[in-house]
TrEMBL record:
Domain Aminoglycoside phosphotransferase: 27-247
InterPro entries, sorted: ACAD10-like, ACAD10_11_N, Aminoglycoside_PTrfase, Kinase-like_dom_sf
Coiled coil: none
One Pfam family of this chain: APH
Organism: marine metagenome
Name the UniProt record assigns to this protein: Aminoglycoside phosphotransferase domain-containing protein
Amino acid sequence: MIDGINLSKVTDWVKDRIPGIVPPLDFELIAGGHSNLTYKFTDTQGSAYVLRRPPLGHVLESAHDMGREHRIVSALSGSSVPVAPTHGLCEDADVNEAPFYLMGFVSGVVLHDQRPAQKMREVERRSFGLHAIEVLSDLHLIDPDDVGLGQLGRKEAYIERQLKRWTKQWEATKTHEIPEMDESLRLLHQDLPAQVGAAIVHGDYRPGNMIVADGRMAALLDWELCTLGDPLADVGYMLNNWPSVGEPGAENAPTAVEGFPERDEIQERYEAATGRSLERINYYRAFSHWRLGAITQGVYKRYLVGAMGKQEFDLAAYKEGISVRARSALKLLKG
């Protein structure tokens, strides 16, 4: 028995969607996800797949839309953006009490911290880093209408919409006061840059959401925050999650190991590939810090009330992390 999986009903549903699968199925919760739950499951032949479902218990409205996530991943299949193959969406709550969808299991490592990065050769670290910015550039150059995602969301006023959305979450999940969050929000509204163009925005583009194999990205994961809007938000977020060797506070970050491309090179390659200026990138980096603080607050509260199942979690460290994000945002905004 595993939390979040009705083994009998899910097995019956899966048998009708994946030809040749041989039950019984063995499910395990994959570590590293703090929002939607990701399970790896294997059959008696050793064939492996993935099931994604919302967190256990109450979740915020529209925050964990499995149908939307399945639609995005399916639409990008066959593009230059690597994604796992999809095998079906279940929206019948009688099967597993919540919607879920199936994907193929992609082999490789996920760079959650420095340990897997240290096992990579230096040449692989560099080639992966260059591929990561190439994939982001390719994603932002895709016309959403060409892949059936033109109606995924409004294309204009992305930052305004995001500020509204995450302010709502911040207020709905707040458990304590953080003055830097409020001051950063004020400054973000005060100095909004003009949005130039629109693209598919991943929303959580970092090494911890990428499967790496042979020095390249084998699959981009966790599309739950994806929408249409200002692509520079993705770039700012990626840069925040791409610290260099010796950078304070980045001792366990995967890219703080020799061999990964530096932020300056990442920015230069993105500008060259897309033709977009990164002159205001510090605003987007500040916005990404603030937004992650609001997202982290939501995750913190879900763990606090036990909605994320039986996973080990350091509540005190996560709570402090929200304040760190807020201070980082304020520092960038004040220049």
